[in-house]
Amino acid sequence: MPSDQNDLDPSANGNDTGNVDATRSLRPGIYAPTPTFFDSESEDLDLSTIRLHSVRLAKDGLAGLVTMGSNGEAVHLDRDERIIVTRTTREALDAAGFTQMPIIVGAGEQSTRGTIAMCRDAARAGGDYVLVIPPSFFRPAMSNEALYKHYTAVADASSLPVLLYNYPAAVAGIDMDSDLLIRISRHANVVGTKFTCGNTGKLTRVAAATEASTPASQGSGYMAFGGLADFTLQTLMSGGSGIVAGGANVFPRTCVRVFKLYEQSRLNEAIALQAHLSEADGILIERGVPGMKAMLQQCHGYGGHARRPLQRIREAEIERLGSRLSRIIEVEKSLQY
User: Among 36, 155, 178, 264, which is most exposed with the fewest C-beta within 10 angstroms?
Assistant: First the structure.
């Protein structure tokens, strides 16, 4: 049975203005888009595991968490469930003493109106920022001007600061160019971009134009995040602020270690560790959300399965995946924070 079913009331303790703590600022570092965990039979939310995982990542040195992102299977959840997951994450962090850890909430819908509603839900649930992916169902109509107007309207209406989410593989190939990202980012309520496109040249241009925060400088406060663990060091060396990466769920300490080595100007060590991290992240990405959950199950005793129609990974495949990731798993175990 899923945990804490009495908690599944999205209206509990909620209000339209949210509970945003202005001191939960974004800072350079490693952020993880957390999975949503489910009961293996019913596929109901498993709130106990959501709490457990959130606190574990905070203890492992992450700078913040993202709920309702791609790894969180937001597209598989209904509106009430999305609110519950974010609220549960906030409550777990607060109860464990991580009251200043920010939560970014995925809030992309196919209409501008729907996206604004999701931003309001994120605030009600205790989120601090929203991460907004472009609408893509009507792909041919999504010109740069249409996207500019969409994001401007969302930023105007949202009580939470907005981060742009450039992830072409998830939105029918829409790949916002640096000129468009810079133009949208002139809005006072747009505070960053996540580059899951993997384009470090684009990240460099946007980071320079926005005077993004880096480990060495607060800059303007704008956050230029790499979107994959396999270019953590490359992001930092390109003027970026850190990463928001699914791999940080499975090997958070390794990601944090690369960040700290760069921060300490120990580049040769950072390069060597990044090589292991890039290899492992490439393997993990191949198996998507089911693979990530399988590795959490193998390494930490929890993880479970994704909601259907995503397929479960067979035991033999999990064993092979674990074998391929054995080097990074040993590195991860050796690190303490």
Answer: 264
